[in-house]
Each structure stands twice: as C-alpha cells, then as structure tokens.
Amino acid sequence: MTKTVLSETVRELIQKARIVSFTTWQNTHPPESIQLFQAADDGGRYLSDEDLQQIQQLVPSTATVIPLTQELRDRVTEIVDEARNQVLEAFPNITQPGGGLYPAMRADACWRDFWHFLRCITYGIAGQRTDYTSSEGLHYMQLLYQELQVPLDAMVVGLEGIKTASLKRVEVGQQAQIAPYFDHLIEQLKLFK
After folding, report:
1. Which of 35, 102, 127, 148 has the most CB atoms lying inside 10 A of its own CB?
2. Is this structure's pTM higher than 0.85?
3. What values do phi and psi take at 20, rounded to 5?
C-alpha cells in the first residue's frame, strides 16, 4: 500500500483544526476539571472512567451526565458503524472511483472524523456545556475540508447519523437532555457550506 504524502498546507491545517475549546468554561468549572478535559483532548482520546470520576467530584452537578458519557464512549464503534451505514445508504457511490470518499484512505479518514466528532460531543455532555467548540479551530477545519475536498453533505449526514445512533442508546427521557450537544456540532458543520 502506498502512503499518501500530505502537503505542507494540509499538515498545518490538521494541527490548527482543533475544534474543542474550554476557554468559556472557566466560570462554571474549576481549573482542575478543565485540565482533565484538556488532557483528554490533547491526547485525542475519550475521557477515562478515572477522568469522569474526578470531574464528578469537582463538579457534582455532572453526576447525571457521567453515565451517559460513559455509555456513548463505550459504544463508539457501533455508533460510528451506524453513522457510516447511513452515509453509504444516502450516497451509495461515495466510496467508488469518482466518489468523494474514494480511495479507501479518504473513507477511513471520514470514519475516523466521526469517532472524533463523538469524542468532542462527549466532552460537551460531560461538562454540561454546549459551547465546547473553538471558532478558530472550526475555521481551520473548514479550510482543511475545502483543501481536501471533503464531501460536506456526507459529513453532515454522518454527524446526524451519530446523533441518531447515540440517542438510541440512552433512555428516552435523556434524549432531549443530550440532543443539543449533537445539534451544536451539526449546525457548526452546516456552516462550512
């Protein structure tokens, strides 16, 4: 398999396209809590059980959302699989020659983005803040998507699929509670067009 060489521009945009920001959380979260979120984001990983336990101790009001965050994290593979299937159903030729997610490495990058989208959303849920995105990071992500000619319509369908698949995995009474965290990122992505 040949390895794709990314242009210098793309490499720079990838570094700058950090879509999460906790700067607006300083009035509602102690610095120790924000550090836990930031460390997870810096590592490109979901919050661990230990992280979530510490966040709950630091911000007791998060007790009701911590189990939701864990559920979504623990079921990320099946959630992303469902979202991928929705994209492939809506755009049956997208992974074929001439499609927006061809060759396979482009599709793989898209599915990886879905994994990261849910990761970012879980930060918002765990922090009980829908303002978990960085306008600057989203700007660079938009430039990155333009540079790579990412099919935005498919990405929006995928993000909506992540929402649908995620909501199916929580109790009906909790769906309205977490839907805004998904809607926030969906709306941000729709602005890329």
Report:
1. 127
2. yes
3. -100, 140
